[in-house]
Amino acid sequence: MSISESTAERYRLQDPDVRLMLRVRDDDAAAFEELMLRYQNRLVSLLAHLVGQRDMAEDLAQEVFMRVYRARKRYVPGSKFSTWLFTIANNVASNALRSLSRRREINLAPVGPGDTGGNPLESAAQAASGLMPTRQLDKAELREVVQLAVNTLNDRQRMAVLLCKFEHLSYAEIGEIMGMSPQAIKSLLSRARANLRDVIEPYMKQGHHVGSPSSNSNHEH
Amino acid sequence: MSTERSSQDGIREQLVAYLDGELSPEECREIEERLSSDDAYCRQMQELDDVWQTLDELPQKATDDSFTRTTIEMVTVAAENELAAETAALPARRRHRWLAVAAVGVVAVLIGFLAANLFSPDPNRALLADLPLIQHIDAYAEVGDIEFLRKLQTNAESIGLKGELAKAGPDAGELQEVSLESPRERRGRVARMSPDQQAALLAKSNRFQQQLSRDERARIRALHEAILAAPDTRKLQETLLAYGLWLEDRTPGERADLRERSPTERIERIEKLAKWDRRREFRELSREDAAALRNETLSLFDERLPFIKGFMERDPRIDDVDAEIKQRRGFLALGVAMFALHSDRNRDEVLDRFLGQLSKPVQKRMEGMPREQAAHIVRRWIRQAFREDVTSKDMERFFVEKLDNARREELLAMPQDQREEALYEQYLRENFGQPDELEDYEREWGRRPGRGDGRRRDGNGRRDDDEMQMRRRRAPPPPRGDGPPGGPPPGRRDRDRPDRPGPPPEAI
Q1: What digits encode the pLDDT tens for the residues A59-83?
Q2: Across the interface, which of B12, B43, B106 has its CB nearest the CB of A194?
Q3: pTM, to two decimals
Q4: Interface check B46 vs A, CB under 8 A
Q5: B503: pLDDT confidence band, cut at 50, 70 and 90?
Q6: CB distance B484 to B328 below 8 Å
Q7: Could you give the CA distance from residue A18 to residue A23 in angstroms, rounded to a whole number?
């Protein structure tokens, strides 16, 4: 994307990470290290939730930084640095997930009584609701349920959710990263959150209320 | 239906966008108006928000310094490759001029900065650089040069190194792998180790870095490189590790002696030690047989526990019988076995029981042996099997506090391995009051050929008084209260008292 020099100047002044990246473009090694330190944890977390493997997440994160380094001469500040970085991360993750799905075995066998015909969402919802009877929610168990719910999302839904939730990116920024329009991201996130609710909500109904301090106690469906 | 669903989807999309701050001010007002009057709409929004908040439960992964450093290493390599590619692409006569520029150019600056980060003092970096040596420092430190390793290889069969060579195979494979790994891969390997393994590795690293001289470290590194460069690297590595395994069974004195010899003399000495090991094999049990005897001893103890407990409960000096038993189980079991194999009315049955646990070759060797002799040998083996229940601290305390000067000097004059054996045997003698030295047995049977079972014994199985006198002349008066960890309280291990903790014969 080509932009005017004034736009570039505007971002240079607004985003400190853009300023750092421009120094990396000029082979400033200290700036590169600074950028790494700012983003490595967030990147590894994002990628870990995407691919589900910590070791692979670190490898992928390193690949992202390598691509940033290799592409430094072509960097043009057209948007926030994080958008550019996560665009690279999205590409790296997509490639990895494609490889993983080719390798992964798909189990089509019925899972037993209450078989949902292979619908992972319904299976996850069943699993979540069966996890805990009528006692107070346990943190570790909740984490397990949330992880279960996130795992039921498809790759694009998961990426959009993670970028929205943890990177606090706008629909436009997420769209830029994922190559989709803001409206498409809106729909994507809506479906994703509905899917999350379908898994987590039944579990939450059976225990005390969790979440923000302003939340009330048990809901009725 | 599809219209209704589409409508529901639309409502949800707006609510989600509202929660994400993506709506225009006007759209927000519409939402808020409805929220104030529509409970179901409000609940729907609340549910979506509550679920969204639970995502905070997802763990956030933190990276450590190693991630940063390995990434910088990768970038450094990329930068170097970049520089090399750019110079290679130039015509030769321009290359020199370009290099002169590049020497102060930005890519070189980048490399310099990153390299400085790589090579800044970092103890972990030193450990990783020498990881294959450090992991096997015990073996490397004992091997002088490749010449010795090749001689070992040639003489492996006569030395009796075959077993160790087989065991060393997998480790040699790993050594080869680690030798070829990059710093990042080695870092990952170390990170995957358990805490105990990492602690052991750190101890070895400290030994390599701090206890060995610079020359010795250089020598070991040169040996390692020479092995890697040899055409038969794998075989040499197997031999190195096999030698390390074999050395584990040698005393410090023997190892020191070996280190001082030339390769040829060392091989000769190793052959002698191996021969001596084979002659001793009848006196010393294999690890497997020792474990089997140990287990059977503990089983015997558990069977007799009710009687032993009753016996101990009648002893006013024992406050907590259960705690005593728990703490000293090995030692008590040893005592039960000693008694059972010496004085028990069912001694022959007990002896057969123990013999049945031994490997077939050992059983075959024991066939036809007089029962007394067999019982004596099995007792000795059981004492060896419970050696680990006696710590070096107990032995040291016994040596320092319980022996007289004459005995200490007598022991100190022995080679270390013989000294340790003699001390241990005496330690047990003092606690169990029974003959145990093979020399004692041999002396006795040598004095009274064909005596069989006719030795005069007191009610607790001890030998004639003259034999006791001879032993007392050699050993000091019995210690009061020494034993394995948690040993008997003072006064318990009195030679004049019945053997403990065996129950009275009539109770069995």
Answers
A1: 999 999 999 999 998 888 876 899 9
A2: B12
A3: 0.41
A4: yes
A5: very low
A6: yes
A7: 9
